[in-house]
Amino acid sequence: MHIVADENIPLLDAFCGGLGRLTRVDGRTLGPGQLADADVLLVRSVTRVNADLLAGTKVRFVGTATIGTDHVDTHWLARQGIAFFSAPGCNASSVVQYVLSVLSLFMVRQQRSGFDGLTVGVIGAGNVGGALVQRLLDLGASVRVSDPPRQEQGADLPFASLDDVLQCDVVSLNTPLIPEGPHATAHLLDAARLSRLGAGQLLVNSGRGPVIDNRALLARLQAPDAPLVALDVWENEPEPSAELVDECWLATPHIAGYSLEGKSRGTEMIAHALHQWAGAEFHARLASVLPPPPLSELHVTDHATPMDALHRALMACYDPRDDDSRLRGAFARGDAAGVPRGPVFDELRKRYPVRREPSSLTIAMPPDTAVQRTLSHCGFRVVEASGV
């Protein structure tokens, strides 16, 4: 069996090394000629999988190590009898980590001492949004959710109108890109809706770039009383608007789901599906192939407040300002050297440093404290340590 796979899918040798020959490729530039004798194609979101790529090849299995599938023509695959699998929910905890870290920086900026009284609007409550909602409720925030399909299905969530959601202190976009239909999300936040956001609010998009009209957003950010904006996803990736990047409070290169656990969980899921399709036994497990984290333990004293301890723990695992600095610095160097922004953006993703999730970090602290509950709600492993 010949497996052609995006070079940015981690730990694939550990999960699929026994199935056959593995060829790594640049997912952004992958073409039909590289699939001439391939049986299996494994991709990430940068590869458009459709008839233009696969017609005339002998590929019979396609897997995407991502939660989204809008880059794959699933209807064409089905008509051709090509098996398809994705990895729903694989990086949900990674994206939640990203949003919570951005939110923590915002709360420090606003001098908030806790989540009481904070309103957070979540647009899209699937695997990522649903997990985010639960974390926020556990932390004591007031949450409003806009997700018409799930509301129609009777999901038990604090639903509100989109207008109400846009009035929250923080608005987080976690919806897939749906180009058309009754629940279309393309340019869901257009100029009219963006005009309702004002100073003191934070808008975060870690879902899909075109859910926000980026030109309208730029105009809003250049107008008075603009909100703070943190964007991880952009229209026209991998070449986001230079002006929009400059106007954002935080700008990152589509890496919200790029924790090592999140990416590796996606690998594990599609590898398991591939083994089932091939009739082979699947033995590898994520816990056995992940390397030790660079930081494994923190100690918190009984003098720490819940918010202070949470902020420091979140930043110890992941500080979004690092990715913001890398993006702006790389773009500035590329612009000076005449290098197009597309390759620079892709290189940042390709060479992304190891980032671990809260579950990799053990926090030792005195027993019976509100700090314990707060940190546990965010996924940290908390252990009692008397005398700390």
UniProtKB/TrEMBL annotation:
Residues in D-isomer specific 2-hydroxyacid dehydrogenase catalytic domain copies: 35-278
Domain of life, source organism: Bacteria
Subcellular location: Cytoplasm
Short name of any one Pfam family annotated for the protein: 2-Hacid_dh_C
Annotated active site: 208, 237, 254
InterPro entries, alphabetized: D-isomer_2_OHA_DH_cat_dom, D-isomer_DH_NAD-bd, Erythronate-4-P_DHase, Erythronate-4-P_DHase_dimer, NAD(P)-bd_dom_sf, PdxB_dimer_sf
This protein's pathway: Cofactor biosynthesis; pyridoxine 5'-phosphate biosynthesis; pyridoxine 5'-phosphate from D-erythrose 4-phosphate: step 2/5
Enzyme Commission no: 1.1.1.290
Binding residue positions for substrate: 45, 66, 258
UniProt: NAD(+) binding residues: 147, 175, 232, 257
Keywords on record: Cytoplasm, NAD, Oxidoreductase, Pyridoxine biosynthesis
SUPFAM superfamilies recorded: Formate/glycerate dehydrogenase catalytic domain-like, NAD(P)-binding Rossmann-fold domains
Residue ranges annotated for the D-isomer specific 2-hydroxyacid dehydrogenase NAD-binding domain, each copy included: 115-256
Domain Erythronate-4-phosphate dehydrogenase dimerisation: residue ranges: 289-375
Reactions catalysed according to its record: 4-phospho-D-erythronate + NAD(+) = (R)-3-hydroxy-2-oxo-4-phosphooxybutanoate + NADH + H(+)
PANTHER family: FORMATE DEHYDROGENASE 1 (PTHR42938)
Family statement drawn from the similarity comment of this UniProt entry: Belongs to the D-isomer specific 2-hydroxyacid dehydrogenase family. PdxB subfamily.
Complexes and interactors: Homodimer.
Protein name (database record): Erythronate-4-phosphate dehydrogenase
